[in-house]
Amino acid sequence: MVADVIVVVVVVVDLDGDGDVEVDVDVDAARPSTIWTATFTSPSPSRFTSTPTTTTTTTGTMTTEPSRAVDLQRVLEWTAVIGDETHYAWLAACYARGVLGVELRDADVIAAAERAGLRMHRFKRSAELPRVRAMLGTLRGLGVETLLDVGSGRGVFLWPMLDGLPDVRVTSIDVLAERAQQIAAVAKGGVERLSVARMDAGRLGFGEATFDVVTVLEVLEHVAEPERVAREVVRVARRAVL
User: Fold this and answer.
1) From the candidate CATH numbers 3.40.50.12780, 3.90.930.1, 3.30.390.60, 3.40.50.150, the one assigned to the domain spanning 130-241
2) Which of 23, 44, 63, 237 lies at a CB distance of 3.0 to 4.6 Å from 72, suitable for a disulfide?
3) Which residues have C-beta within 8 Å of that of residue 67, sequence separation ≥ 6?
4) pLDDT, tens digit, for every residue of 150-199?
């Protein structure tokens, strides 16, 4: 007896080349076995493809629970190629080394990180954002040597700052343990001028005038006591608070 099978073919065109693709396929409860084929085409380098106009096709078989949607992005395993045009590749490599504890060249350690399920999209370039570009210009003009970044979060500002200001010694803090651990992995993986701590911005564990500049991007509007945080960052800043 031959089992009832559905054949699903999905073609996704990643127009902006960022590799952010979400695909869902609904499987008939009466037909639990599915053969799927997914094709990803990108016009520019992305986390799925390393060269323009590259097409990657993956095929497999899976069994699903009745009436359950199948998320192809969860079942596909990709060896991603992260290039300098789209990502801060050297920082992504440092993060991978810090987490995996291996010494490999950048491309190999990034591929190993993707296979291990590490989320590398957080290192996508964001320096083109107007607020980030303006901040980097201000910091260059100030000639900063030491900087405290309060509430670094996912690194939207931290990564372009580390990339664009290679001589600045940076201390990064975040109140969330997960965020602090992720950034600490980057430091451990090779960014020696970066130090990290989990810390409440309203109770900074630093002395007065410790840093040339303190950056507090998109933080005050998210804290319960913005006045307290403002007093603390002014206390530890020697030259400016941005």
Assistant:
1) 3.40.50.150
2) 23
3) 27, 29
4) 999 989 899 999 999 999 999 999 999 999 999 999 999 999 999 999 99
